[in-house]
Design goal:
Helix content: 25-40%
Number of helices: 2
Strand content: under 5%
Shape: elongated
Amino acid sequence: MWPDNETARDLLNFSGVADTVAVIIVRARGRPISIGVSGAWGIGGALLQGPVGGVP
């Protein structure tokens, strides 16, 4: 089991999901959209905020 610390390494292989979400955001071109992340507590949903948060 991995420690519960922030890391720049994608230990849960979320980069594909983050990339897809980023594309959706960019293609929206400022139009309002809603993206839901659903999962049990501790599944790593908040980890998407880091990689996706840098979308211009």
